[in-house]
Design a protein that fits this description.
The complex is a heterodimer. Chain A is an alpha+beta fold. Chain A folds into three domains: 114 residues, Butyryl-Coa Dehydrogenase, subunit A, domain 1 (Orthogonal Bundle); 110 residues, Butyryl-CoA Dehydrogenase, subunit A, domain 2; 145 residues, Butyryl-CoA Dehydrogenase, subunit A, domain 3 (Up-down Bundle). Helices cover 54% and strands 16% of the residues of chain A. Chain A contains ten helices and ten strands. Chain A has a four-stranded mixed β-sheet with strand order 1-4-5-8. In chain A, helix 8 packs antiparallel against helix 9. Chain B is of the alpha/beta class. In chain B, 29% of the residues lie in helices and 25% in strands. In chain B, the strands form two sheets. Chain B has a nine-stranded mixed β-sheet with strand order 9-8-7-10-6-1-4-5-11, sandwiched between helices. Chain B has a two-stranded antiparallel ribbon with strand order 2-3. In chain B, helix 2 links the parallel strand 4 and strand 5. The chains are: A alpha+beta, B alpha/beta. At the A-B interface, helix 1 of A face helix 2 and helix 5 of B.
Chain lengths: 379, 256
């Protein structure tokens, strides 16, 4: 066993760090404040080849392993969790299922511009009445000639208002809970597809989230992703991948909380000495560093298993729940270390604490991760 | 179309230099990075290539484990690297580094222009560039903040205390650049992946046929610290004597 990244992985991590410092840090406060989609940053990411990292070069990707991709998500999220998530949801949940389940034609037509970063992807599964309980979705797809007619409302669609390509899910057979759901690739310009309400969120405010409304939306048969009835399998598989990205994002946020806490506690003087000299602060910092390191190795391990072609569903869930919860805990501790200043706009930890919470909720809540883990362990 | 050579140094990243509570510095876990101004040198070489064509070759002298530095440099645009390396190559003196560079660049590379950073991030001796030019017998322009090529001449704006001087020199020539000259680009993912596939010419001390024993020895590495003693001195001879006694007492200068 050898706990070391390759030189190439280290350089890619360092370059993403440099990228984030150069292009993301200067806008991170403003895009959070205004809930603005950082189009110019995403364009730069695309130019650098960062928007399709783990996909084959023949389909516009860079052909690196999933671990390297996850490390890049961590570094980007360290500067801005919303930008990191935009990249992660595009790569893991939108490009991912097309790369895995799409046919040659679909990969050429949809994955290639997405992996090149020319098109942004979104994943529209959640419905107002169907969160963790995916099976209670009500969207339907009815075959009419050579087209499926989609009807339904999706909610909390990340990248929804700004995406070009959607991976969505609807019942083709409502009576078959197991094999009745089908996945579709739907381009933005398809008549009958529209953006509904935009959500104003507590954190990751620069990530755009909306309802997506499918009203008699006609999608050609060739846009069925995988086979008819594969929807549930594709959704669950996509989450397995996506969760590694969210774990990495959470580690990035927690690392930023630690970076801020170290520099602040060394320069904040109370009772005639820096507060970092107090054991109470030292213990918080020690716990942060320990959990971040543990979380990082958990997601490295899940990504490693995936790269080896081994089962990784349980490990991805473990990484996701652990990283998300430690991220929330330590972002809150970072605010504590900063005291009143940390509670105010203008300190990065204020944003980090708001951004951290979502990692416990999306791409499967912490409770859903424990269902996956227990289901595996108690089998 | 100019053939451009850029020289770079792989140095300890100062972000990792942290003194222990006793003031000692342990570099064992420190990461390395491309010396800051050498990034400007590489970037300028690549920009000139984009403007005038030709080729860009990167050259370094380093211990054998600096392979990541070669990949880093190549990811920033040069198409080829010369890696003068040996496990023994620690604590080199600028005269030695420039002698090795001169031997390799003069003997193996067809060059029109050599670009170096003004100085390295670690020692900042500002010696290697001018010494290299001297050894190759070519003109040297230092403190350069803008660079262009016209025909067989290089035109440079150099920063001086009085203002900006515009000078030109016939090619082949060497310039040392300031950070003002450009903003180095951030290598994209594909640049890093491509770097691993670019040719690297490895040159050992044996190939050079010369020995370069370490001239500098580390006697210890200690962090600088600031202590205020709150003592005031005037300019009278007695005060000056008291000042000297005071810094002797605190060990700032040697008692000998």
């Amino acid at each position: 066993m050898y706990f070391k990244l390759t030189e190439e992985q280290e350089l890619i991590r360092d370059n993403m760090r440099e990228f984030a410092r150069t292009y993301v840090d200067p806008v991170a406060v403003e895009i959070d404040e205004n809930s603005r989609y950082p189009e110019e940053v995403i364009k730069k990411l695309a130019e650098g080849g960062w928007m399709g990292m783990p996909f084959p070069t023949e389909f516009g990707g860079a052909g690196v392993d999933y671990l390297t991709y996850a490390i890049a998500v961590e570094e980007l999220s360290r500067s801005c969790a919303a930008t990191g998530f935009t990249m992660s949801v595009h790569t893991g949940l939108a490009c991912g299922p097309i790369a895995l389940f799409g046919n040659e034609e679909q990969k050429k037509k949809y994955l290639t511009p997405m992996a090149k970063g020319q098109h942004l992807g979104a994943f529209a599964l959640t419905e107002p009445g169907a969160g963790t309980d995916v099976g209670s979705a009500t969207s339907t797809a009815v075959l009419d000639g050579d087209e499926y007619v989609l009807n339904g409302v999706k909610t909390f669609t990340s990248n929804g208002p700004v995406a070009n390509t959607y991976v969505t899910f609807a019942w083709t057979d409502k009576n078959d809970k197991r094999n009745g759901m089908t996945a579709f690739i739907v381009p933005r310009e398809t008549p009958g597809l529209s953006v509904g309400e935009h959500f104003m969120k507590m954190g990751i405010r620069a990530s755009q989230t909306s309802e997506m409304i499918f009203k008699d939306c006609r999608v050609p048969k060739e846009n069925v992703l995988g086979k008819v009835g594969d929807g549930m399998k594709i959704a669950m598989n996509s989450f397995d991948h996506g969760r590694i990205g969210i774990a990495a994002q959470a580690v990035g946020i927690a690392q930023a909380a630690l970076d801020e806490s170290i520099s602040y506690s060394k320069q904040r003087i109370q009772f005639g000495k820096p507060i970092s000299k107090n054991q109470a602060i030292q213990w918080m910092i020690a716990d942060m560093y320990t959990d971040i390191t543990a979380g990082r190795f958990l997601y490295y391990y899940a990504a490693y298993l995936k790269d080896q072609g081994l089962p990784f569903s349980k490990e991805a869930a473990m990484a996701k729940v652990f990283c998300a919860e430690m991220c929330s805990k330590h972002a809150s501790k970072a605010v504590q270390i900063h005291g009143g200043y940390g509670y105010c706009k203008g300190q990065k930890v204020e944003r980090l604490m708001r951004d951290a919470k979502i990692t416990e909720i999306y791409e499967g809540t912490s409770e859903a991760q424990r269902m996956v883990i227990a289901g595996n362990v108690l089998r | 179309m100019p053939n451009i050579v850029c020289c770079f140094k792989w140095v300890v990243d100062e972000a990792y230099i942290k003194p222990s509570s006793s003031g000692k510095i342990d570099l064992e876990w420190a990461e390395h990075k491309l010396s800051d101004y050498d990034r400007n040198a590489i970037e300028e070489a690549v920009r000139l290539q984009e403007a005038y064509g030709g080729s860009v070759t990167a050259v370094t002298v380093a211990p054998s484990d600096a392979t990541k530095g070669i990949k880093d440099a190549l990811s920033r645009g040069p198409e080829k690297a010369y890696f003068i390396n040996d496990e023994e190559l620690e604590n080199l003196e600028p005269s030695q580094t420039s002698a090795m560079l001169a031997q390799v660049i003069g003997g193996q590379i067809d060059y029109d222009l050599i670009i170096c950073g003004e100085g390295s991030s670690d020692l900042y001796a500002q010696q290697v560039g001018p010494r290299l030019a001297e050894k190759l017998g070519i003109p040297c322009i230092a403190f350069v903040k803008k660079l262009s090529i016209e025909g067989q001449r290089v035109i440079a704006q150099r920063k001086s205390d009085e203002g900006v001087e515009v000078v030109s020199a016939p090619l082949p020539a060497l310039v040392t650049v300031l950070p003002d000259i450009n903003n180095p680009r951030v290598p994209g993912l594909k640049d890093t992946l491509a770097a691993s596939k670019k040719p690297v010419v490895e040159i050992s001390l044996e190939d050079l046929g010369t020995e370069y024993p370490a001239l500098i020895t580390d006697k210890g590495l200690r962090a600088a610290s600031l202590v205020r003693n709150c003592t005031r001195f005037g300019s009278s001879p007695e005060d000056l004597q008291a000042f000297v006694e005071s810094i002797k007492k605190t060990g700032v200068i040697d008692r000998g």
